[in-house]
Amino acid sequence: MNLKGYFITFFISMVPIVELRGAIPIAESMRLNIFWYYPIAILGNMVPVPIIYFFARKVLEWGKDKRIIGTFFTWCLEKGEKGGKKLIEKAGTTGMFWALLLFVGIPIPGTGAWTGTLASSFLNLGFKNSILAVTLGVLLAGIIMSFGSKMVSILGWWGLAIVILVIIALVLISTIINKKKKKN
After folding, report:
1. What distance in Å separates the CA atoms of residue 100 and residue 115, rounded to the nearest whole number?
2. Cα–Cα distance between 17 and 72 in angstroms, integer?
3. Cα-based distances in Å from 74 to 65, 119, 123, 163
4. How confident is the prediction for the chain on average, in pLDDT?
5. Interior CA angle at 34 toward 113 and 53, to 5°?
6. DSSP H/E element including 140
7. The total number of structural domains that make up the chain
């Protein structure tokens, strides 16, 4: 058993922006066991979530006007607010749980547990609902990333091509569905 690889997976999944979306392909490239790296990446991704929910906004508000860190902290605040507004626009107040789950669960840059938790704290969604939605979203993102990584690992370039085609198909389907909704 490659303990070092599992520790790397755990810690990479805690890093903002990268999260388990980056940790899982790295774990797969190290040929780690999916039955170990998947839960380790989930745990690593979830460790910062309660801290983010309770403290991140307070720290960001405090640091936004500081000389060295102000620009970055302001960017983080704006990203959290923007993410929250997008969720409300898409889901309204009643569908926020599902919107947050999907926001975190669809593995595209900037939509992970860190951003989702920060957005939920900005929107005052409540700790229990936020944690549950983010956890389920992280599980979904982990499944998607594990499947994609395994496809590439097993099939090489063909696996990568299949993953890219599936992503393109999903984007096209989503676009068509959204256009039909806007017409009605």
Report:
1. 10
2. 14
3. 8, 14, 17, 35
4. 88
5. 15
6. helix 127-155
7. 1
Residues in the chain: 184
pLDDT higher than threshold 70 for residue 184: no
Range of lowest pLDDT (127-131, 150-154, 179-183): 179-183
For residues 47 and 29, what is the distance between their CA atoms, to the nearest angstrom?
23
What does the DSSP 8-state code read for residue 112?
A: S
Q: Show the domain range for 154.
A: 3-183
pLDDT at 135: 97
Instruction: Determine the Cα–Cα distance for residues 101 and 105; give it in Å rounded to an integer.
Output: 6
Q: What angle do CA 37, 26, 164 make, to 5 degrees?
A: 105
Task: With cut-offs at 50, 70 and 90, classify the pLDDT of residue 144.
Answer: very high
CA distance 57 to 111: 17
